[in-house]
Write a structure and sequence with these properties.
2 strands; Farnesyl Diphosphate Synthase; two-stranded antiparallel ribbon; mainly alpha; about 375 residues
Amino acid sequence: MTESTHLVDLVDSRVDEFLITREPIVTLISRDLTPLVDFSRQFLSGGKRFRALFCYWGWQSVRGDESGDLRPVVSAAAALEIFHAAALVHDDIIDNSDTRRGGASAHKLFEGLHRSEGWAGTADDFGRASAILLGDLLLGWSDELLDEGLEALPADAPTRAAGRRARLEFNHMRTEVTAGQYLDILEERAWIVQAESELLERALRVITFKSAKYSVQAPLVIGAALAGGTAEQLDALRAFGLPLGIAYQLRDDLLGVFGDASVTGKPSGDDLREGKRTVLVALARETLTAGERSLFDGELGDVTLDAARIVALQELILASGAVDRVEAMIADRVAEAEAVLADAPLAEGARDQLRTLSARVTRRAF
């Protein structure tokens, strides 16, 4: 078993253990609240655990091969995964997305519960309201789990200071990802009044704050801060994590348009139905003719898009050269990130693992 595989197992166990302790708190209020715990388990099972892995290797970048109590970093990594689950629940509501990881999204699960029980009102309203509350509950639980990890730190002053720094980084991440989410929904509506020359930069701003920082950079820095990393070490991980995080999201954007549903867990072309104003879309529009651009803009974001219309949009994007340009951007940012590792003041074994993770998060196939 590799160290990364072992870490994932530890995080999965920590999440399960945490939910076991929280279930009676919820269900003692009322058995009617059981779906909140059941659906939480569903959303916290599976996934690639990339954020947990980046957190752990940020920690090991500082500690090296030193053995010791892993409870603080395992709890922090698990807290990041619960935070991620909360973000997915809310994101699916915002995007009106029916599926997540090959199954129903949270609001659809609650809709199904409403219909099966024959309750009053509309299933849509109940599903949306209940999923908002589930996301809120998961956000609170991520905080609680992080605090449990911080409490497991030794009581000496330097270690406690490291814990406070990790908490500040976690708080900063929450603010940034919320800001990024707002920028994302803003861009889907405000693009029409923006100058064409600004659309690419605005799309890059969205992925930087909505995904790149919280998916890669923040977990690295939280882990390193928890381990007592120096300012130089944290800066090196930031310099590595940001371009890699952007590359990660650029790959995700390609998968959102061209991905195989059996691999991505979401319908192929789902980002086109949702009207995502991604870097891929901004680049495609730059080289489309006026007529093609008008057709493209008219179709993008139409929730009724069928398979044939999805294919037509995919073909327009391919013909525009945007896919090749995004692939080049991914390669450039991976190279930028990995160049940082060459002389970064980080443990050598951790640097090797970060190079491996770099490939895993950016070379996912369609």
